[in-house]
Amino acid sequence: MSANYVLKNATLADGSIADIAITGEKITAIGKSLEGSEVIDCSGLIALPGFVDLHTHLREPGFEQSETVLTGTQAAALGGFTAVHAMANTSPVADTAGVVEQVSSLGREAGYADVYPIGAVTVGLEGKQMAELGAMANSKAKVRVFSDDGKCVHDPLIMRRALEYVKAFDGVIAQHAQEPRLTEGAQMNEGAVSAELGLTGWPAVAEESIIARDVLLAEHVDSRIHVCHLSTAGSVEIVRWAKARGIKVTAEVTPHHLLLTDELVRSYDAVYKVNPPLRTQADVLALREALIDGTIDIIATDHAPHPIEAKDCEWPAAAFGMLGLETAAAIAQQVLIESGASSWERLAQVLSYNPAAIAGDQDSGQPIAVGAYANIALIDPKAVVVVSSESASKSNNSPYVGMTLPGRVKHTVYRGYFTVRDGNLAKVGKH
Amino acid sequence: MTHIKNLLSAGDVDRDFAIHLLDVAEGMSDVNDREIKKLPTLRGKTVVNLFFEDSTRTRISFELAAKRLSADVINFSAKGSSVSKGESLKDTAQTLEAMGADAVVIRHHASGAANVLAHSGWIQGAIVNAGDGTHEHPTQALLDAFTMRKRIHGNASSGKGLDGVKVAITGDVLHSRVARSNLLLLNTLGAEVHFVAPPTLLPANPANFNATLHYSLDQVIDIEKPDVVMMLRVQTERMTASYFPSEREYARIWGLNSDRLVRLKDTALVMHPGPMNRGLEIDAVSADSPRSTVLEQVANGVSVRMAVLFTLLSGERA
């Protein structure tokens, strides 16, 4: 059978140059001078495994004015993602098999990326009673990642039980580490800037104390623990210590915590309001170093769309969260490649292999190899892009608008289908 | 001297402009001593007092200031915010813009609300911050500086700063917009700022505060010998949130009382932005002593607010 597409002269993450042949949904050959029905010149483009986001808010069901599974996965495709994990804080909350199956089915209908629902750890995200994790795991959505994201599973006993319980189906708890009492009314990082601005502080210790507790709990019950959006230098130290001790902890960092600091809050522009908050430059540098040395395993976007009215207001009234899917790869390139500190191979690990491995995804985040699904992001690394306010997302709360970032996602291939071609989104998804 | 369009922060004014405002206020103060306390300067201008938070004192001070300059004054008491599904700041601002407000004096419970109003493009008029959350209250700092200058230099105040004046600001620094605005303006005018508070009511990271921090009011009085002791109001919501064990203990350690009053140096001033909790942060003897400037602060508030509205609205470029 002749290949549908040949990606000609693509540069792989290891620097080698090859043609990639795609037939149906799979990669069928990698080599030189391959032939197919359509040959696409990929000279100068880096071919990476399609990105996998472990932390996306698709907002559907319930908050369709902010985002839908369709618009969110379209934004994902434009960012080079071929799989996203949809957070559970929808309405109704994704705490039952019914809701996670609905989200999963909406993802298939959209056809822009694999959508893996994340199940809530506790009923209604209320932190009191464990949700039916087994039912969600055994549903058609096959949930393996559970999180109350947006809220912390702060009750230590509930957290311990959840860590233990999900071992039955090799699940993982993804913790939003935020001690609730220490962050009552918190608006921004507690530090020198919050003292000046008179905004209630969100202290680093509120994150670090929960991470410290959770890695010790995970050690005690021999479970995996995943730390969402780690944001402080102190958190890095705790995770580094835990890993050295052999605790099964993985950690994620968001693009915004790798790039932006609390100095931006001086504008009182609520586009910079996010949870956990933007921290200091010292934190940013510690997070970058940890991403490069492997203490932090992945970049996850925490893509959090909000309608205009949720941001166009005074700071304390505004919602927490910012967009991230369409700009994540560029920020990863800035931090790992343009800095000269790391490699495309590491970028593929943190945006694709590692998140898929943490979540146990079988079809996504696999190396570009014969027999694998053709999930490929093709990046033009030399492009320089001024971020525009246009977005596939239904919302426009991007903190990067007007910033210059390196690289551009030129094509995204999702299961053999071009969801993005020459930077343009396909009009319909894969069916 | 850098002229400004809005007064959002005490940090917006440089030294020359701050002294200019205080000098203009001296002139306004003379007007307030006349039989006919009115100038025609802002006739035809509309000043809106937009108060999202109750503050009768500040509102009537601004109202009187605008009326003495012959401006038309509208008081707009808005409740709620976009959080509580009340009227949003944006809708309110656009409404005022449609009505043609030349200046909006805003008091809001959210830190930064005045900044958002000034930079959102919702409204063209001048914005005066009359207190935003726990951030700033710049006209309070101006009236405090005016009061200090007047007490220290008397009729020779014009043109002077507050160089070398040692000011001990005591109380809930963490949540005080009065403290933040005073810090900035006093630094600009050359004064030396000392903050005195229980550690729970100081910022966890004061790195950007150009002030000396103290835990003991007694030590500050006996060792620093301040020229001014400014007591901050203890808000009732702090009393139940574990910032300090009890009102009694707070009053004992951080309150200004007759024992401490007599240890102040002879020329020292006692200030309070009002309203006072008598018996908590300040006792009656201190509040009513000749050192106390509390009522002068109220009177000077009108003069200073006249100077601010006049300077922002008259198009005057000194």
CATH top level class name of the largest domain in chain B: Alpha Beta
Count of helical segments of chain B? Answer: 12
Mean model confidence by pLDDT of chain B: 94
* Global shape of chain B: globular
Query: How many separate domains of chain B?
Result: 2
Structural class, from helix and strand content of chain B?
alpha/beta
- Do you know the CATH topology of the largest domain in chain A? TIM Barrel
Beta-strand residue fraction of chain B? 5-15%
Secondary-structure element string of chain A: EEEEEEHEHEHEHEEHEHEHEHHEHHEEEE
The class by helix and strand makeup of chain A works out as: alpha/beta
In whole angstroms, how far apart are the ends of chain A? 21 Å
Overall average pLDDT of chain A: 97
Approximately what portion of the residues of chain A adopt beta-strand conformation?
Answer: 15-25%
What does this entry show, briefly?
The complex is a heterodimer of chains A (431) and B (318). Chain A is of the alpha/beta class and 431 residues long.
Overview of this protein structure:
The complex is a heterodimer of chains A (431) and B (318). With 431 residues, chain A is of the alpha/beta class. Chain A has two domains: 3-46 and 372-425, Urease, subunit C, domain 1, CATH 2.30.40; 50-359, TIM Barrel. Chain A is built from eleven helices and 19 strands. In chain A, the strands form four sheets. In chain A, strands 1, 2, 3, 4, 5, 16, 17, 18 and 19 form a nine-stranded mixed β-sheet that branches. In chain A, helix 6 packs parallel to helix 7. In chain A, 61% of the residues are buried. Chain B is of the alpha/beta class and 318 residues long. Chain B has two domains: 10-137 and 298-313, 3-Layer(aba) Sandwich (Rossmann fold), CATH 3.40.50; 138-293, 3-Layer(aba) Sandwich (Rossmann fold). Helices cover 40% and strands 14% of the residues of chain B. Chain B has twelve helices and nine strands. Chain B has helices spanning 15-32, 56-68, 89-99, 113-119, 138-153, 177-188, 217-224, 236-239, 247-254, 258-263, 284-287, 294-313; strands at residues 46-51, 72-77, 103-108, 126-132, 166-170, 192-196, 212-214, 228-231, 269-271. In chain B, strands 7-6-5-8-9 form a five-stranded parallel β-sheet, with helices on both faces. Chain B has a four-stranded parallel β-sheet with strand order 2-1-3-4, with helices on both faces. In chain B, helix 4 links the parallel strand 3 (103-108) and strand 4 (126-132). In chain B, helix 1 packs across helix 12 and helix 5 packs across helix 6 (177-188). Chain B is globular and about 55 Å long. The mean pLDDT of chain B is 94. Classes of the chains: A alpha/beta (431), B alpha/beta (318).
